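C-alpha cells for chain A. Residues wanted.
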C-alpha cells in the first residue's frame, strides 16, 4: 500500500460531518478494530472544500476516541495520510490521521454554507 502525506492547508475548511464512530474489524461479530498498540480505531467523516470547489466527504481513521467533536464543527486534522489500496477488482483511497481535534471557534449546526 502506497502512503501519501496530505497537506491539510490545501483542503480548505475542514468540518466534522458526524460524531466519531468506532470502526469494526468484523461487522458480524462487532469486533472493534485496534491499532498496533491496542487502541480502538475510530472513523470520522470530514467535509473538505478546497479552493471553493465542490464539497467532498472523506472518512478518516484515527486511533483512540477523538473528544469534543460535534457535527458541523470546524476541525484540525494532524498527520493526515492517504493510502492507495487494491483488493481484486476493487481499489480506492483511504485516509488516516494522527489526531482530529476541534478547531478554535464556534460550531456551525445545520446544512449548507462552507465545508
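Reply:
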Amino acid at each position: 500500500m502506497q502512503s501519501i502525506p496530505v497537506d491539510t492547508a490545501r483542503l480548505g475548511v475542514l468540518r466534522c460531518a458526524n460524531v466519531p464512530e468506532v470502526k469494526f474489524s468484523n461487522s458480524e461479530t462487532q469486533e472493534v478494530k485496534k491499532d498496533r498498540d491496542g487502541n480502538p480505531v475510530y472513523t470520522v467523516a470530514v467535509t473538505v472544500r478546497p479552493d471553493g470547489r465542490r464539497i467532498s466527504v472523506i472518512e478518516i481513521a484515527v486511533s483512540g476516541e477523538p473528544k469534543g467533536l460535534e457535527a458541523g464543527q470546524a476541525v484540525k486534522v494532524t498527520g493526515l495520510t492517504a493510502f492507495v489500496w487494491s483488493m481484486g477488482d476493487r481499489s480506492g483511497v483511504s485516509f488516516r490521521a494522527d489526531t482530529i481535534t476541534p478547531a478554535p471557534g464556534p460550531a456551525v449546526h445545520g446544512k449548507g454554507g462552507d465545508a
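The mean pLDDT is 89. The chain has no helices and eleven strands.
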